[in-house]
UniProtKB/TrEMBL annotation:
Coiled coil: none annotated. Residues 107-313 form the ATP-grasp domain. It comes from the Bacteria. The keyword Thylakoid does not apply. Its EC number is 6.3.4.13. It comes from Pseudobutyrivibrio xylanivorans DSM 14809. The gene is purD. Belongs to the GARS family. InterPro entries: ATP-grasp, ATP_grasp_subdomain_1, PreATP-grasp_dom_sf, PRibGlycinamid_synth_ATP-grasp, PRibGlycinamide_synth, PRibGlycinamide_synth_C-dom, PRibGlycinamide_synth_C_sf, PRibGlycinamide_synth_CS. This is Phosphoribosylamine--glycine ligase. Keywords: ATP-binding, Ligase, Manganese, Metal-binding, Nucleotide-binding, Purine biosynthesis. GO terms for biological process: 'de novo' IMP biosynthetic process; purine nucleobase biosynthetic process. One of its GO terms (molecular function) is phosphoribosylamine-glycine ligase activity. It catalyses: 5-phospho-beta-D-ribosylamine + glycine + ATP = N(1)-(5-phospho-beta-D-ribosyl)glycinamide + ADP + phosphate + H(+). Its cofactor is Mn(2+); Mg(2+).
Amino acid sequence: MKVLIVGSGGREHAIALAVSRSPQVDKIYCAPGNAGIAELAECVDIKAMEFDKLVAFAKEKEIDLTVIGMDDPLVGGVVDKFEEAGLRCFGPRKNAAIIEGSKAFSKDLMKKYNIPTAGYENFTDPEAALKYLETAKYPIVLKADGLALGKGVLICENHEQAVAGVAEIMTDKKFGDAGNTMVIEEFMTGREVSVLSFVDGNTVKIMSSAQDHKRAGDGDTGLNTGGMGNFSPSPFFTKEIEEYCQKNIFQTTVDAMKAEGRPFKGVIFFGLMLTEDGPKVLEYNARFGDPEAQVVLPRLQNDIIDVFNACIDGTLDQVDLQFSDEACVCVVLASDGYPVSYKKGFPITGFEKFNNKDYYCFHAGTAKNDKGEIVTNGGRVLGITALGKDLVEARAKAYEATEWIDFENKYMRHDIANAILK
């Protein structure tokens, strides 16, 4: 088989590694890819939103399967374009990817089908939002409706912060058109858990649970980011909680999308809050998480091509999804200043030390310069990931491996997976 992966981050590197392990695959392409993915695939200079170019390339190279990693092209309808051209593509169609593309849509879906989530209201008029906030209970959460690179969520401790948040999202358009509609949501307390799942339109099969660290600074301080680290499995996602979620959240969501005439095929990422009143949905994503993919996919024991095909063909019920009993921890090495402003182009050293099967160095924001050196090329640069017999061992190994890599303005959190030490 020939496989094309669309994207350029650590998630796509993890997907490429899983695909490379399939005996069915002879050739991998990635558009546009990065310096790390280039070791597994032939990188192609086509951007993720250049749909016509992607389709033309897939036809020219006789690609057997295209895998979409990123949210923007999915929400924009890239899968529809591939299917219209008679090409196999893994990911939801545009009318299903709206589950991530519009928070207002997903909240209304949950309300209609009694899927547990926080109370909320949707607003398209900033003045109406401000009036609502006058009598709201604080803290409260403001969410830009559309895609905002994981950063369009503001937790406001008081009325003054909320007023500033409305201006930021709806008036100043910090997140662009994503802020044309805004969701105001009650603040939930508890432990956050991420659960990735494969879906074929009818059947949902969950992967392993994971737990993200979204804030930039130690102790969950600073601005929201795309994710500064992750661990899997989450010891807080018990068998009892899993059974409740399977019945009341996972399958109900898949059935709801089908009932709405929007059958979902691909990956649904369930962002959950384990509250005192039980698990509730924080958000849906319509693709693998980043860096969740980096801690989940290395533990996948199935041939991922079989799973992708089962999702496309509607035969996922025939797949026995298996993951190793090992634990996995990922620590993101970022450029100092992320997620606001940072310099790039610094040479990176230490890659040669990743020669053990328990250690992974997933490239997120990297490129090659004119000298052929691998250099920093983004806010999140690398996902340093390790497997261990348990989370304590995996965490120790991941932090050990962060010391192997060096580049100017290297920054990381030092408390990833601290919760499991306690």
